Amino acid sequence: MPALSEVELVHFPGLGSLEAFDTDGLRSLLRNCKAPDMVEKTMRY
User: Fold this and answer.
1) pTM for the predicted model, two decimal places
2) Is residue 2 part of a domain?
3) How far is it, in rounded angstroms, from Cα 12 to Cα 35?
4) 4: closest CA among 18, 21, 20, 19?
5) Is 25 within a domain?
6) Cα separation of 18 and 38, whole Å?
């Protein structure tokens, strides 16, 4: 999946809505974390 794709709105009570989009940076966790799926999102106000 390309970085900065799949833009979505995420709502936080008391804060408002933020844009969230896919970014890259979890490769170092692949060896250490035994999770079946991981997604890194960048939040923008």
Assistant:
1) 0.61
2) no
3) 25
4) 21
5) yes
6) 20
